[in-house]
Amino acid sequence: MASPATYPRPDFFRQTLNWTSLNGAWDFIFDDADSGLSELWQHKGIPRETGTQIKREIMVPYAFQTPASGIGVHEAHEVLWYERTISDIRTADELAKGNRLVIRFGAVDYDCSVWVDGQFVGGHRGGHVPFDLDISDVFHDTNSKKTARLTIRVRDSPYDLTQPRGKQYWGPVPESIFYTPSSGIWQSVWLESLPAMRLGSSSEGTILRSDDIERGEMHSRVSVIGRRAASKCSVEIEARLGGTPVSKASAELPKDKEFASLIVDMKVPNADELRKKAPFDNAGSWHDRVALWRPGYPILYDLILRLYDATGSVVDEVQTTTGMRSLSWNTGDGTFRVNDRPFFQVLVLDQGYWLETGMTPPSPDALKDDIVMSMNMGFNGCRKHQKVEDPIFLYWADRLGYLVWGEIANAYEFSDDYVQRFNSEWTEVVKRDINHPSIVTWTPVNESWAYTSLKDNIEQRNHIRSLYYMTKTLDPSRPINDNCGWEHVLTDLTTYHDYSDSPQLAASCSTMEGILGKKAGHDMFTPPIRSGSILLDAGAQHKPGAPVICTECGGVNIAPAKDGSKGDRDWGYTTAADPKDLLKRLEKLIMAVVKGGHSCGVVYTQLADIEQEVNGLYSNDRREKVPAADVKAIVDSAKAHYYEHVLAK
Fold first, then answer.
1. pLDDT tens figures, 376-435
2. First and final CA of the chain: distance in angstroms?
3. Is residue 568 pLDDT above 50, yes or no?
4. pTM for the complete prediction?
5. 132, 126, 130, 106: which is closest to 166 by C-alpha?
6. Which of 471, 524, 538, 553 has the most CB atoms within 10 Å of its CB?
7. Alpha carbons 39 and 120: distance in angstroms, whole number
8. Percent of all residues in the chain with a pLDDT value above 90, rounded to a whole number
């Protein structure tokens, strides 16, 4: 029987799931001449060699640039081919029921096409979001056809700056704040046997909105995939808390809809008893009879979603969770509120790279470990920077009570093609992650990346404005940080980046004029910038009373060894002499932000070293550079100062 601990999407889990991982050894070849399609590799199989390239073995899901892939070359290759044999995993009972065989991809960077036994079954463009393909019809002759050849062609341009790539450098060798590219399959691939009519995931339209803590209600939209025209079916949601039944709600799908809307009562009948029991012994985590999710103390409701056919039989059942919590950012007093209480966010910039595996975690546990390491240092969340992280990360963030700012990999040039690419992928990001209580802010754009003429180009400003409204339409329950740290166009939060050393940072954070004023550019291609806005568009300027958050600062590295053993791979914004000096600088930087009295949050750069950028609090192999307890003392002091002094003003 399947287990959420090993399944790649543990947040949407079927107890009776029949699935098999396709991670492991695949055949692989570079197609530098881009001749594979014309030579019909999809029909014949990938060749032993082509030009100067030979077929070799790659370990999926690691990008070919990483050591873990078994290839590990830092070379520019635009077209890649993968191939392996797959088997039909459906049992005789599942075949009799008409179950479908679906192949699932966590993420493939960037544009891929898929064939099974030479038959085209679909493709996807977008390197950071999942997609599924139904390959059932390839196994049409169940008496003889049990295996098939799976072939995948991937195109990932090393040079196209309109392609969303995040921190992946547009060349084979990284430099400055940019890292090694990560091409091809970089998240898990697996096969599933699924009911022909089944419950849809969040990506397919199931939304569980759990922010109405006053009424104690979860407003839900449950989608159904594969419904036959006008066939009668219904959905049910059962809520439990700590194994105790809370409530049920059900609804029949309208004949003209592929979804049903339900309101689930989340008020606990025996709340007084549960509040006396661990982990429900903190009265501050309840509102009336509703158990609340909050940072550091996450209470999750277990949910069972069921789909019934016309006979009343259960045809699909999914397990997931939700956390009842509300967010407020427009109260006019400059606070960011969780469950209507001001909350000081001390976050860490987390870019999710590992030494041997690049953007792919070396194991599912590594994602949980990064959260634990951050919390051990006192941070209550992260800004997941320029990366859409593996869903397992959010699974653990929900369970550990860890805040996450959702972001996406940006591009570097603006064009019509970029707009289409970005809109599609950003929509998929929001839909994939919308049901996680740990997600508290959406950040579509960072530092005007791709918007190089924002001040003078109305089309670029209009696109950012459209991203705000598109995101708000998809999810009105969270604030939007439209253009993190730089000139805002339309935003719920005023965010700023400042990598100055502590004296300069303290001076600029002491007044709103300093926060909104010009800052020195901090990377390889930026001019001096403003954290506020000099744009003429209505709504671009800071709104008095809106939350102000320093969403990047710090980035302190430690001076290299005197023997120069680290060479030139010691990049940081400022440099500490040793670990003790790093701690002193960390304290001064964070306190400079909070003592200024205008900011309700801070994001410290960064959690761990990445390649040549060695300004993490942990090394790239996750060893402490400074004691976690010492960092936690500093972070806790900053939180205390905010609650005791800033809020008292």
1. 999 999 999 999 999 999 999 999 999 999 999 999 999 999 999 999 999 999 999 999
2. 57
3. no
4. 0.96
5. 126
6. 553
7. 15
8. 85
Q: CA 583 to CA 574: how far, in whole Å?
A: 13
What pLDDT, on the 0 to 100 scale, is given for residue 103?
Answer: 98
Percentage of the chain lying above the pLDDT 70 cut: 94
In 374-522, DSSP assigns E strands to 381-384, 403-407, 439-443, 445-446, 483-484, 494-497, 518-519
Give me the CATH code for the 18-198 domain, please: 2.60.120.260
Helix (H, G, I), strand (E, B) or coil at 645: helix
Residues 6+ apart with CB under 8 A from 591: 634, 637, 638, 641
What CATH number has the domain spanning 344-646? 3.20.20.80
pLDDT at residue 280 above 70? Answer: no
Cβ proximity of 290 and 325 under 8 Å: no
Distance CA 290, CA 239 (A): 12
- pLDDT tens profile 343-381: 999 999 999 999 999 999 999 999 999 999 999 999 999
Instruction: Report the CATH architecture of 200-322.
Output: Sandwich (2.60)
Q: What does the pLDDT look like over 53-82, one tens digit per residue?
A: 999 999 999 999 999 999 999 999 999 999
Question: The tokens of 117 are what?
Answer: 């036994």
For residue 372, give both structure tokens. Answer: 């634990």
* Encoded tokens for 374: 């951050």
Domain ranges of the chain: 18-198, 200-322, 344-646
- The per-type count for the chain, helices as H runs and strands as E runs, is 11, 42
Q: Does the CA dihedral 515-516-520-521 come out positive or negative?
A: positive
**DSSP codes joined into one string, 12-70:** SB-TT-EEEE--EEEEEEE-TT--TTTTTHHHH---SEETTEE-EEEEETS-TTSGGGT
